[in-house]
Amino acid sequence: MSRIAYVNKAYVPHGQAAVHIEDRGYQFADGVYEVVTVFKGALIDEEPHLDRLDRSLNELEMAWPVARSALKVILRQVVRQNHLINGVVYFQVTRGVASRQFEYPKDIKSSLVVTAKHMRELVHGPDKNGISVVTLPDLRWQRCDIKTTGLLASCMTKQRAKESGFNDAWMIDRDGFITEGTSNNAWIVTHDDELITRDISNALLNGITRRRILKIAESQGLNIIERAFTPQEAKKAREAFISSASSFVKPVTKIDDCVLGNGQIGSLSEALSNGFLDFLENS
Amino acid sequence: MSRIAYVNKAYVPHGQAAVHIEDRGYQFADGVYEVVTVFKGALIDEEPHLDRLDRSLNELEMAWPVARSALKVILRQVVRQNHLINGVVYFQVTRGVASRQFEYPKDIKSSLVVTAKHMRELVHGPDKNGISVVTLPDLRWQRCDIKTTGLLASCMTKQRAKESGFNDAWMIDRDGFITEGTSNNAWIVTHDDELITRDISNALLNGITRRRILKIAESQGLNIIERAFTPQEAKKAREAFISSASSFVKPVTKIDDCVLGNGQIGSLSEALSNGFLDFLENS
Question: Nearest Cα to B213, choosing from B251, B179, B176, B175?
C-alpha cells in the first residue's frame, strides 16, 4: 500500500510529494505545524490542535491555507487514503512561494502539506522502564510558544543526547530552569505527591497532550503545580515523565547520571498513563 | 530568458524547481546557505564563502552535497545559464530527505539547491541618503554564528521594522548590545574616528563582506575596534552603516528617532564604500 500525501490541493504518492525551492518554509523556516494522534482512526484532540495552529498563524500574520472546515476534511482524507488506524497525522503550513526577501511578501497563498504515519507501537500499556534524559543548554529562540518548523536547535540537542547515550534531552534556560524536552513537555512528581510541570510562557510550547494530562490529573484529584523547576530538583524527584502527541505519558527514569526511584515507572505516572489510555479509548 | 535553478544534480527551469516535502530543510530548517555577489560575471570572495559553508556544515555534522570543486563548477554553470552579470548566486545545503525524526538520520545524501538573481541596482556609487533602522529585541537562537535557514526570527524582525516605517532593524541582545541587522552586520563611526563593529561570537554571523571591509579599512589606515556597542552609543555616532553581500557598505542615517549627522552618508563611510567598489572592480 503506497503512502499518500496532500500537497497544495493534490493527493499525491508520498515519493513524488514536492514543494517549490522558494517555498518560504524551505528558505526561511517560515512555517508552522501540528502533529495529531490518530487512535482507532479518530483524530485525538483535533480542535485544540487546530486552535493552536490558528494561534501560531496569527502570531506570524500568516493566512490559513484553506478554511478550518476544509482542513478537517483534508485531514480525514489523508487518514482514509492511508488506511491509518493508529499513528499520527502531520500537517505543515508555510507562508508560501515568493522571491527571496526577509519581510513577509504580500498577496501570496500559504502552502499546506499533510502526511500520515502508521505507528504500530503507538498503543500500549504504560512503558515500564522509561527513558533517560540528559540536561543540555536550551539553544532555541525567544518564541518557543509558536510551533514553527525552525527546529534545528531541537534536532542538534536531540542528536547530542543520542550521541551521549541518552534517549532525549531536557533543555535548560539561561536562568538554570528546565524548559522542556526536544519535542515534548517535562514533568516531575515530588516526594510530597506534587505534580509539577512548567507554566506556559514564550519559553516553551503549550502542549496539547500536556493540557489533556492536566485535566486527567485534576480528575484524579492530584496536587498540580505549574512552575519552572531545575535539574537539581528533577534529580531529587520521586518520578518524572515526558508528554507529547506520540509518547503520551512516558516515564523518565534517569536524568543525567541519576536514576529515579527504582528505575521503573512510578505509581503516579502509571495512573496518569492509564488515565490517558482511557481517554483515548473514549475519544 | 527563463531562470534556471540547480536542484540535486539537475539544471531545471526555476518554476519547476522542487524538493521533497520530507527534505529536512523544509521540516526542520536543517540546512545552511550562502549568498555570493556576482560582479561583472565574477564570483566575489568565493573562497571565504565556501570556507564559511564548510564551517556551517561541520558545526551541524552535515556532509558536503558534492565536492567543493564540483560546487564551484555548478555555481559557474548557474551563473552562465542565467546569463548573470551583476547580482547574487544563492546556494543552500540541507541534510537531505528522511522520514521525520529529530535526531540526524544516518546514510542520507545532503541536498543542494542553487539559484541566481539579477540585480541591476547592485552596482552604483555610494548610497547618499542611507537607510533607517529601528532597534528591536534579538529573538534568535544561541548559534547565530552558523548560517542556517532558520531565519524566521530575522523575518519577523524585518517585517516589524517595515511595519514601523523603517528600512531594517538592528537587533539588541539581552545585555542591551546590538548584535547585527536582520541580514547584515552593523557598524558605527565615532566622533573620534573609530570604526566599530561587533566582535565575532555565537551571537552574530561572521560576515564575508564584514571581513572584506575590515581589510579595506586597514588599508586605509583607519582605527578599527571590534567590540559590542549599544543603541545609545550608536545614536551618538558620527556615522553608521550596514554591510552584506548585496548591500556592500550602505549608510544608516537614522536609528530609531535619531538622525545621524546631517542625514546623509558620512565621509568615512563614503571612503569605505568607494574602497569596496574598487575592490569589486579589481576582483
Answer: B251
Query: Could you give the maximum distance between any two Cα atoms of chain A, in Å?
Result: 58
> Hey, which residues does A115 pair with through a beta bridge?
A90
Boundary (domain end) residue, out of A118, A152, A174: A118
Mean pLDDT to the nearest integer, A236-260: 96
Give ipTM to 2 decimals.
0.96
Using CB atoms, pick whichever of B94, B100, B103 lies closest to residue A90: B100
pLDDT at site A123: 66
Given the residues A147, A158, A250, A254, select the one marked as catalytic: A147
- Residue B206 sits in the same domain as residue B265: yes
When divided into structural domains, chain A yields a total of 2
Q: In terms of domains, do B111 and B199 share one?
A: no
Selection from B133, B181, B22 nearest residue A102 by Cα: B181
Give B-chain residues touching A99 at CB under 8 angstroms.
Answer: 117
Q: What is the tally of helices (H) and strands (E) in chain A?
A: 7, 16
A136 and A274 share a domain?
A: yes
**CATH classification of the domain holding B220:** 3.20.10.10
Is B147 in the active site? yes
Q: What is the tens place of the pLDDT at every residue in B57-84?
A: 999 999 999 999 999 999 999 999 999 9
- Residue of B33, B141, B155 with shortest CB distance to A104: B155
Asked if residue A41 belongs to a domain, the reply is: yes
Alpha carbon distances (Å) from A75 to A38, A114, A120, A267, B282 = 10, 7, 20, 36, 57
pTM: 0.97
Sign of CA dihedral A134, A136, A140, A146: positive
Q: Quick check: is B21 in a domain?
A: yes
C-alpha grid cell for residue A166? Answer: 541518552
Q: Which of B19, B23, B27 to mutate to test the interface with A (most CBs of A within 10 A)?
A: B27
Given a cut of 50, the residues of chain B with pLDDT beneath it are none
Q: Per-residue pLDDT for A122 more than 80?
A: no
**Measuring CA to CA, which residue among A213, A137, A145 is closest to residue A177?**
A137
- Min mean pLDDT across A34-48, A124-138, B101-115, B242-256 is at A124-138
Residue B123 lies in a domain: no
Domain housing A137: 131-281
